[in-house]
Amino acid sequence: MVLRVIITIIEIILCFLLQTVVFTTYSPTGIIPDLLMVITIGNAFMRGRTTGLLTGFVCGLLLDCCYGSGMGLCALLYMVTGYLAGYVARFYLPDDYTLPTLLIAAGELLYCLMYYVTEYMLRGKLYIGTYFGQIILPKIAFTVLAGVFLYRIMNGVNLRLAARKPKEENQNHA
């Protein structure tokens, strides 16, 4: 349990640095993949609603502290997305990459639409067509593309931790 939490924190920090430093620097279009959303949805899908909620909170709060216009907005949106993605955890199959890919796309779409409503629509900026075509669709495409590779790594780590768990239980009972 403790090892799983430590690995999740390391994943969050690495993806945060990749997303905010590397991809921001080398992005020709200005649209970067949302790796923290992939971490949130991946953990929710593999481990359930509570883990998705907590991972979403940490990822969103990290973004809020560094880049947010209002404290807590990204944390709330990531929490909601992680919690909703956790409902699909009962369908988790280690070899299936179709459902997580669809979840990443749906989660990013949900996040972008909720962000649009809270940041733009409530301020009277009603250009949903422009926002959807120029920001949401490219962001979903980049996030899904990066998410396929990142989820594969996360799944491998999750399977290794799951294989290690019975060994630890046998050592504790001996």
How would you sum up this structure in a few lines?
The chain has 174 residues and is mostly helical.
Account of the 3D structure:
- The protein has 174 residues and is mainly α.
- 79% of the residues lie in helices and 0% in strands.
- The chain has a single domain, classed as Arp2/3 complex 21 kDa subunit ARPC3 (Orthogonal Bundle).
- The two termini are 19 Å apart.
- The chain has helices spanning 2-25, 35-47, 49-67, 73-85, 98-119, 128-173.
Keywords:
174 residues, mainly alpha, Arp2/3 complex 21 kDa subunit ARPC3
What is the N-to-C succession of helices and strands?
Answer: HHHHHH
Mean pLDDT: 89
Tell me the helix content.
Answer: over 70%
The assigned structural class equals mainly alpha
Quick one: how many beta strands? 0
Number of domains: 1
Which class in CATH terms?
Mainly Alpha
Write down the CATH topology: Arp2/3 complex 21 kDa subunit ARPC3
Largest sheet: none
Distance between the termini: 19 Å
Low-pLDDT sequence parts = none
Which architecture would the CATH scheme give at its second level? Orthogonal Bundle
Radius of gyration: 17 Å
Helix count equals 6
Q: Beta fraction of the residues? A: under 5%
Described by the principal axes of the CA atoms, the overall outline is globular
Oligomer: single chain
Secondary structure topology:
Layout: H1 2-25, H2 35-47, H3 49-67, H4 73-85, H5 98-119, H6 128-173
